[in-house]
Write a structure and sequence with these properties.
By secondary structure, this protein is mainly beta. It contains 1 helix and 11 strands, in the order H-E-E-E-E-E-E-E-E-E-E-E. It comes from Saccharothrix syringae (Nocardiopsis syringae).
């Protein structure tokens, strides 16, 4: 099930003149180029759901930095993790990344739950997204149900600001998943 797509307004207002809206669209175009690069690299699938463009990518499990005791410390993916799920969410009107969302996913295979979790925001060098490492039972087709709650942040602009008001559901069906783990770079920065 997918929430029908709607395009939020993008019109000049007391908060954004036409030139400023063009700046927002240019930022969105840059994010879409990054998303296209991810699609070429990893096979991202994109759907419109409500006022969002939602992209799904499944990659190899990977290590990343996390804060521990006030410092950034490199941590490898958990031993049993063999997949990494990414959900990128952009505004359908201007294409910009939407921050501070509560994104949950349910991944099933042959009717059995594989993953049911909230995905935290992950900073990425070129494509911010929500994601997590996980364990899959093997290669094959999986169904992914994505649920996005309306964000709690304030919205400027009486013309353009009334958006992201309702929860959104989007389904990605029969998505091929392949297990794997990315090797950590040999020469990563010192911890």
């Amino acid at each position: 099930m997918s929430t029908p797509g709607t395009t939020p307004p993008m019109a000049a207002s007391n908060e954004a003149d036409p030139g400023q809206l063009d700046v927002a669209r240019a930022e969105g175009a840059a994010y879409r180029r990054a998303l296209e690069a991810m699609r070429e690299e990893s096979g991202a699938v994109v759907k419109q759901a409500g006022e969002f463009l939602v992209a799904l990518v499944q990659e190899d499990a990977e290590g990343m930095y996390a804060r521990r005791d006030g410092r950034l410390v490199w941590q490898e993916a958990p031993e049993d993790a063999n997949g990494h799920l990414e959900i990128a969410v952009a505004d359908a009107a201007d294409g910009r990344f939407v921050p501070e969302l509560d994104v949950t996913v349910t991944v099933t295979r042959d009717g059995e739950d594989v993953l049911d979790t909230r995905l935290p925001f992950l900073w990425h060098p070129f494509l911010h997204h929500y994601g997590a490492n996980f364990t899959m039972p093997g290669a094959g087709d999986y169904d992914v149900q994505v649920h996005i709650e309306p964000p709690g942040f304030m919205r400027h602009d009486p013309v353009n600001g009334k958006r992201y008001e309702h929860p959104v559901e989007v389904a990605f069906l029969t998505v091929p998943f392949t297990p794997g783990r990315k090797p950590s770079p040999e020469a990563r920065p010192r911890d």
